[in-house]
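Researcher: Please translate sequence to C-alpha coordinates.
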Amino acid sequence: MERTDYLAYVKARMPEKRYIHTLGVEQTAKAMAAHYGEDVAAAETAAILHDLAKYADVAWMEQIVRDHGLDARLLGWGSELLHGPVGAWVAQHELGITNEAILHAMCYHTTGRANMSNLEKILYVADMLEPNRRFPGVDDLRQMMYDGLNEVFEACVKHSLIHLISSGIAVFPQSIECYNDIQSSERN
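Model: Translation complete:
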Protein backbone atom coordinates (compact mmCIF):
# COMPACT_ATOMS: atom_id res chain seq x y z
CA MET A 1 0.00 0.00 0.00
CA GLU A 2 1.03 3.57 -0.61
CA ARG A 3 0.54 6.77 1.39
CA THR A 4 -2.79 7.57 -0.29
CA ASP A 5 -4.08 4.05 0.47
CA TYR A 6 -3.13 4.37 4.14
CA LEU A 7 -4.72 7.81 4.35
CA ALA A 8 -7.97 6.49 2.83
CA TYR A 9 -7.91 3.55 5.23
CA VAL A 10 -7.61 5.71 8.35
CA LYS A 11 -9.92 8.48 7.13
CA ALA A 12 -12.77 5.95 6.90
CA ARG A 13 -12.19 4.99 10.55
CA MET A 14 -12.07 8.35 12.31
CA PRO A 15 -13.82 11.71 12.58
CA GLU A 16 -12.52 14.59 10.46
CA LYS A 17 -10.86 16.27 13.47
CA ARG A 18 -8.81 13.13 14.18
CA TYR A 19 -7.90 12.85 10.50
CA ILE A 20 -6.59 16.44 10.58
CA HIS A 21 -4.61 15.49 13.70
CA THR A 22 -3.20 12.49 11.81
CA LEU A 23 -2.03 14.74 8.97
CA GLY A 24 -0.36 17.02 11.52
CA VAL A 25 1.39 14.06 13.15
CA GLU A 26 2.55 12.90 9.71
CA GLN A 27 3.98 16.32 8.85
CA THR A 28 5.72 16.65 12.21
CA ALA A 29 7.09 13.09 12.27
CA LYS A 30 8.52 13.41 8.75
CA ALA A 31 10.22 16.71 9.58
CA MET A 32 11.65 15.32 12.81
CA ALA A 33 12.84 12.12 11.12
CA ALA A 34 14.61 14.12 8.43
CA HIS A 35 16.18 16.40 11.03
CA TYR A 36 17.40 13.53 13.22
CA GLY A 37 18.57 11.29 10.35
CA GLU A 38 15.89 8.64 10.77
CA ASP A 39 13.86 6.79 8.12
CA VAL A 40 11.38 9.39 6.83
CA ALA A 41 9.22 6.80 5.02
CA ALA A 42 8.90 4.72 8.21
CA ALA A 43 8.01 7.86 10.19
CA GLU A 44 5.38 8.75 7.59
CA THR A 45 3.74 5.32 7.68
CA ALA A 46 3.80 5.08 11.49
CA ALA A 47 2.32 8.58 11.78
CA ILE A 48 -0.48 7.96 9.30
CA LEU A 49 -1.45 4.67 10.95
CA HIS A 50 -0.83 5.53 14.62
CA ASP A 51 -4.50 6.17 15.48
CA LEU A 52 -6.12 3.64 13.14
CA ALA A 53 -7.79 1.82 16.06
CA LYS A 54 -8.58 4.93 18.14
CA TYR A 55 -12.31 4.64 17.52
CA ALA A 56 -12.59 0.86 17.51
CA ASP A 57 -14.95 -0.84 19.94
CA VAL A 58 -13.23 -1.26 23.32
CA ALA A 59 -14.61 -4.77 23.87
CA TRP A 60 -13.23 -5.81 20.46
CA MET A 61 -9.83 -4.29 21.29
CA GLU A 62 -9.75 -6.10 24.63
CA GLN A 63 -10.58 -9.34 22.83
CA ILE A 64 -7.62 -8.75 20.48
CA VAL A 65 -5.41 -8.31 23.56
CA ARG A 66 -6.67 -11.57 25.07
CA ASP A 67 -6.71 -13.62 21.87
CA HIS A 68 -3.34 -12.54 20.52
CA GLY A 69 -1.17 -12.32 23.59
CA LEU A 70 -0.80 -8.55 23.79
CA ASP A 71 0.17 -7.01 27.14
CA ALA A 72 -2.62 -8.09 29.50
CA ARG A 73 -1.97 -5.00 31.64
CA LEU A 74 -3.86 -3.06 28.93
CA LEU A 75 -7.18 -4.63 29.87
CA GLY A 76 -9.45 -2.14 31.58
CA TRP A 77 -7.54 0.95 30.48
CA GLY A 78 -9.89 1.94 27.65
CA SER A 79 -9.27 3.10 24.10
CA GLU A 80 -6.72 5.75 25.09
CA LEU A 81 -4.16 3.03 25.77
CA LEU A 82 -5.56 0.09 23.83
CA HIS A 83 -5.55 1.81 20.45
CA GLY A 84 -1.75 1.88 20.10
CA PRO A 85 -0.98 -1.82 20.59
CA VAL A 86 -4.19 -2.94 18.88
CA GLY A 87 -3.54 -0.54 16.00
CA ALA A 88 -0.08 -2.05 15.57
CA TRP A 89 -1.64 -5.52 15.57
CA VAL A 90 -4.16 -4.43 12.90
CA ALA A 91 -1.40 -2.82 10.82
CA GLN A 92 0.58 -6.05 10.91
CA HIS A 93 -2.24 -8.54 10.40
CA GLU A 94 -4.65 -6.63 8.19
CA LEU A 95 -2.41 -4.20 6.31
CA GLY A 96 0.67 -6.41 6.07
CA ILE A 97 3.10 -4.03 7.80
CA THR A 98 6.18 -6.07 8.69
CA ASN A 99 8.60 -3.29 9.66
CA GLU A 100 9.08 -3.80 13.42
CA ALA A 101 10.22 -0.19 13.85
CA ILE A 102 6.89 1.08 12.51
CA LEU A 103 4.89 -1.41 14.57
CA HIS A 104 6.74 -0.54 17.79
CA ALA A 105 6.35 3.20 17.17
CA MET A 106 2.60 2.71 16.74
CA CYS A 107 2.33 0.41 19.74
CA TYR A 108 4.05 2.75 22.22
CA HIS A 109 3.05 6.18 20.90
CA THR A 110 0.79 6.83 23.91
CA THR A 111 2.44 5.04 26.80
CA GLY A 112 6.11 5.10 25.92
CA ARG A 113 8.30 2.27 27.23
CA ALA A 114 11.84 1.64 28.38
CA ASN A 115 14.53 1.57 25.68
CA MET A 116 12.57 3.41 23.00
CA SER A 117 14.09 3.69 19.54
CA ASN A 118 14.50 7.06 17.86
CA LEU A 119 11.50 6.37 15.61
CA GLU A 120 9.38 5.53 18.66
CA LYS A 121 10.47 8.79 20.32
CA ILE A 122 9.73 10.75 17.14
CA LEU A 123 6.17 9.43 16.89
CA TYR A 124 5.56 9.98 20.62
CA VAL A 125 6.70 13.60 20.32
CA ALA A 126 4.99 14.25 16.97
CA ASP A 127 1.68 12.95 18.33
CA MET A 128 1.94 15.31 21.27
CA LEU A 129 3.27 18.40 19.49
CA GLU A 130 1.69 18.37 16.03
CA PRO A 131 0.46 21.83 14.96
CA ASN A 132 -3.20 21.28 15.88
CA ARG A 133 -2.55 20.39 19.54
CA ARG A 134 -3.49 23.05 22.07
CA PHE A 135 -2.58 22.70 25.74
CA PRO A 136 -0.65 24.78 28.28
CA GLY A 137 3.07 24.45 27.58
CA VAL A 138 2.79 23.11 24.02
CA ASP A 139 4.59 26.11 22.51
CA ASP A 140 7.54 25.73 24.89
CA LEU A 141 7.79 22.04 24.02
CA ARG A 142 7.58 22.79 20.28
CA GLN A 143 10.52 25.17 20.60
CA MET A 144 12.61 22.22 21.78
CA MET A 145 11.68 19.87 18.91
CA TYR A 146 14.89 20.33 16.96
CA ASP A 147 17.33 20.94 19.83
CA GLY A 148 17.84 17.27 20.65
CA LEU A 149 15.55 14.26 20.32
CA ASN A 150 16.25 12.87 23.78
CA GLU A 151 15.71 16.27 25.39
CA VAL A 152 12.35 16.97 23.76
CA PHE A 153 11.23 13.37 24.31
CA GLU A 154 12.09 13.60 28.02
CA ALA A 155 10.27 16.93 28.32
CA CYS A 156 7.18 15.45 26.66
CA VAL A 157 7.19 12.38 28.90
CA LYS A 158 7.51 14.53 32.00
CA HIS A 159 4.76 16.87 30.81
CA SER A 160 2.42 13.92 30.19
CA LEU A 161 3.11 12.37 33.59
CA ILE A 162 2.68 15.66 35.43
CA HIS A 163 -0.63 16.22 33.63
CA LEU A 164 -1.90 12.73 34.50
CA ILE A 165 -0.83 12.93 38.13
CA SER A 166 -2.13 16.46 38.67
CA SER A 167 -5.45 15.41 37.10
CA GLY A 168 -5.73 12.38 39.38
CA ILE A 169 -5.51 9.96 36.47
CA ALA A 170 -3.80 6.61 36.97
CA VAL A 171 -0.49 6.16 35.12
CA PHE A 172 0.03 3.01 33.06
CA PRO A 173 3.03 0.98 34.32
CA GLN A 174 4.87 1.20 30.98
CA SER A 175 4.79 4.99 31.20
CA ILE A 176 6.48 4.83 34.60
CA GLU A 177 9.01 2.37 33.16
CA CYS A 178 9.65 4.84 30.32
CA TYR A 179 10.27 7.68 32.77
CA ASN A 180 12.50 5.53 34.97
CA ASP A 181 14.51 4.46 31.92
CA ILE A 182 15.06 8.10 30.96
CA GLN A 183 16.26 8.87 34.48
CA SER A 184 18.56 5.86 34.69
CA SER A 185 20.01 6.71 31.26
CA GLU A 186 20.83 10.20 32.50
CA ARG A 187 22.63 8.79 35.54
CA ASN A 188 24.80 6.41 33.46
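Researcher: Any highlights?
Model: The CA atoms of residues 27 and 117 lie 19 Å apart.
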